Amino acid sequence: MVEVARLLHASLLVSDLARARAFYEGVLGLVPSPSRPVMGFQGVWYDLGDCQIHLLVLANPDPVAGRPEHGGRDRHTALGVRGWAALCDRLDERGIPYTLSRSGRPALFCRDPDGNALELVEIP
């Protein structure tokens, strides 16, 4: 029997690590994890509970242009957020576009500087 038990990490390709970190750390408030080993390319890992997000500075084989405006219609990574209203204010203040979830729940979709779609969902 095979059992897939949980998600361990999501990897996102980025072209400019400083710009990506400004978004993930400066906008989303994530803190780099010291657990990333030395690798043959730049990147940073962020711990999110018992999961991680890995930013990898590697060539992106996917086109960024032509993606749907609403990230819910694109491949995306969903993150649970506390302080959702404050997050909306922060995105507005920094001019980062987003669309609200079409389900009516407190969730939004935005893109990082490299076009990776993120779903940010309010959790208790």
What characteristics describe this protein?
single chain; 124 residues; alpha/beta; 2,3-Dihydroxybiphenyl 1,2-Dioxygenase, domain 1; 4-stranded mixed β-sheet; 3-stranded mixed β-sheet; 2 helices; 17% helix; globular
Account of the 3D structure:
A 4-stranded mixed β-sheet has the order 4-7-6-5, covered by helices on one side. The protein is an alpha/beta fold. The longest helix has 11 residues. The radius of gyration is 15 Å and the shape is globular. Strand 5 and strand 6 form a beta hairpin. 17% of the residues lie in helices and 31% in strands. The protein has a single domain, classed as 2,3-Dihydroxybiphenyl 1,2-Dioxygenase, domain 1 (Roll).
Q: So how many helices?
A: 2
**What is the count of structural domains?**
1
Order of helices and strands: EHEEEHEEE
Q: Which architecture would the CATH scheme give at its second level?
A: Roll
Query: What is the CA-CA span between the terminal residues?
Result: 35 Å
Going by CATH, the homologous superfamily would be 2,3-Dihydroxybiphenyl 1,2-Dioxygenase, domain 1
The CATH topology turns out to be 2,3-Dihydroxybiphenyl 1,2-Dioxygenase, domain 1
- Segments where pLDDT lies below 50 for 5+ residues? none
In percent terms, what proportion of residues is strand? 25-35%
Mean pLDDT: 93
CATH class: Alpha Beta
Largest sheet: 4 strands, mixed
Tell me which oligomeric state these chains represent: single chain
Total beta strands: 7
Strand line-up across the major sheet = 4-7-6-5
Which class best fits the helix and strand makeup? Answer: alpha/beta
